[in-house]
Amino acid sequence: MTYSFHNPSDGILKQYLETSKTIAVVGLSDREDVTSHRVSKEMQEQGYRIIPVNPRAAGGQILGETVYARLQDIPFSVDIVDIYRRSEFLPDVARDFLETDAKIFWAQLGLESQEAEEILRDAGREDLVMNRCIKQEYRRLVLHS
């Protein structure tokens, strides 16, 4: 049986993007040539606060913000958790996500996990997006609408 995850409607995705202010980016790299950095920088330029989550860079700064080792270490509320870790790591990120008050679990383009979806849904969390680029969705649904 193939796994078939269905993302929220465009209307809901647009609402997520328009009502969110803070995005924690799991796997954000300090290397400017990496997709996570380029996308996060553009989202920051659109007015979002980007919070880097990267254990190897914890305590340093990326895009002018303090880097945290884990989602649970962020000492304030986050709206979206945007994930740039391989699909096999999504269940671990989902478990971490559930230990925070973050609202939306968003796995970037090319990333999805049935196990992560089950973990989140079993915990009553329905606000999840997988295999979508947050920058592309922002451009499509918010900038050009």
Please name the defining characteristics of this protein.
single chain; Rossmann fold; two-stranded antiparallel sheet; 5-stranded parallel sheet; alpha/beta; 145 residues; 17% strand; 5 helices; globular
Major beta sheet summary: 5 strands, parallel
The CATH superfamily is known as NAD(P)-binding Rossmann-like Domain
Report Rg: 14 Å
Low-confidence stretches: none
Q: Structural class of the helices, strands and pairings?
A: alpha/beta
Helicity level: 25-40%
The fold-level CATH name is Rossmann fold
Return the domain count.
1
Q: In CATH's first tier, which class applies?
A: Alpha Beta
The N- and C-terminal alpha carbons lie at a distance of: 37 Å
Across the major sheet, the strand order is 2-1-5-6-7
- Count up the helices: 5
Can you write the helix and strand succession as a string? HEHEEEEHEHEH
Strand content: 15-25%
CATH architecture: 3-Layer(aba) Sandwich
How confident is the prediction overall: mean pLDDT? 95
| Strand element count | 7
Structural features, described:
The chain is of the alpha/beta class and 145 residues long. The chain has one domain (21-143): NAD(P)-binding Rossmann-like Domain (Rossmann fold, 3-Layer(aba) Sandwich), CATH 3.40.50. It contains 5 helices and 7 strands; from the N terminus they run αβαββββαβαβα. It has helices at 10-19, 35-45, 90-98, 114-122, 134-143, and strands at residues 22-26, 49-53, 61-62, 65-66, 80-83, 104-107, 128-129. The strands form 2 sheets. Strands 2-1-5-6-7 form a 5-stranded parallel beta sheet, with helices on both faces. A two-stranded antiparallel ribbon has the order 3-4. Helix 1 crosses helix 5 (134-143) and helix 3 runs parallel beside helix 4 (114-122). The longest helix has 11 residues, at 35-45. It is globular. The protein starts with 9 loop residues before the first helix and ends with a helix.
